């Protein structure tokens, strides 16, 4: 009884059918980029300083340039705004006081020669950026800068949990089912991020997005390697990951053109709706069907593969057996990663590497 690899040698290991499947799944890999590295643009932190009431009016009255205004009114301003005090502290003075000198405003306010006291930014911040990010929208700077780290940590936590669970779902219910459900969830989360008004909900949705996105990418990786012949699996696996790098370049260009994070989020989410067309243009993995004892469905896909590749399947290939088990339907579990010494060793090495 032939195996699937035996049949692929006759119907095509990497012909038109596999190339079509590979191409459409590379689109999925490229679309994963904004989820993984989106914090670079969604959480961009521009130069900033405390907003001080009365400074703009005083600057206009004195005829200061922007650089003169910053030198006179921002603590420890060195021309670049790089210190903590220049970004997160302001002079505790009333800039609306009459009689302030335009040449030495702090000296005219101090009077006693003591240094002017500094205080926190009670009236928000001024950002030197034409666009917006979650940092500028929710003031995630200074004492609240840790919230930006939490924004990315939430998606990473989702990656971790999703990688453990969605792999099981792909083995239990099929690669295609896992792919489609996670695409739907990712699209919904992406659209919700555009409209949610609070930081807390952004973190929650970001976690949910990470929960499904990593598993979605992994399910695509598994599927693309399972429809090709053995000698092409390493190549398509590498190129599938290279598609992620292409997506990164495209994402950079889009982010450059759209400096406002909500518009950027909407722009990178809407195209992923077209990935739902996978329901019609992607096959289920014949290897998974065989592992579930569904040989008839697997053979139907193989016949379609032969037809698309314009190859003729030998008549004596009437059935397929699963390469690793002749006992019918498989029941995967997490313990399979540790069941044998070789698999256990591979699992621990990969966990350590990651």
From TrEMBL:
<dbReference type="GO" id="GO:0022857">
    <property type="term" value="F:transmembrane transporter activity"/>
</dbReference>
<feature type="transmembrane region" description="Helical">
    <location>
        <begin position="21"/>
        <end position="44"/>
    </location>
</feature>
<feature type="transmembrane region" description="Helical">
    <location>
        <begin position="236"/>
        <end position="257"/>
    </location>
</feature>
<dbReference type="InterPro" id="IPR005828">
    <property type="entry name" value="MFS_sugar_transport-like"/>
</dbReference>
<keyword id="KW-1133">Transmembrane helix</keyword>
<protein>
    <submittedName>
        <fullName>Solute carrier family 22 member 2</fullName>
    </submittedName>
</protein>
<dbReference type="InterPro" id="IPR020846">
    <property type="entry name" value="MFS_dom"/>
</dbReference>
<dbReference type="Pfam" id="PF00083">
    <property type="entry name" value="Sugar_tr"/>
</dbReference>
<keyword id="KW-0812">Transmembrane</keyword>
<feature type="transmembrane region" description="Helical">
    <location>
        <begin position="177"/>
        <end position="195"/>
    </location>
</feature>
<feature type="transmembrane region" description="Helical">
    <location>
        <begin position="201"/>
        <end position="224"/>
    </location>
</feature>
<feature type="transmembrane region" description="Helical">
    <location>
        <begin position="263"/>
        <end position="282"/>
    </location>
</feature>
<feature type="domain" description="Major facilitator superfamily (MFS) profile">
    <location>
        <begin position="100"/>
        <end position="354"/>
    </location>
</feature>
<dbReference type="InterPro" id="IPR036259">
    <property type="entry name" value="MFS_trans_sf"/>
</dbReference>
<feature type="transmembrane region" description="Helical">
    <location>
        <begin position="150"/>
        <end position="170"/>
    </location>
</feature>
<keyword id="KW-0472">Membrane</keyword>
<dbReference type="GO" id="GO:0016020">
    <property type="term" value="C:membrane"/>
</dbReference>
<dbReference type="InterPro" id="IPR005829">
    <property type="entry name" value="Sugar_transporter_CS"/>
</dbReference>
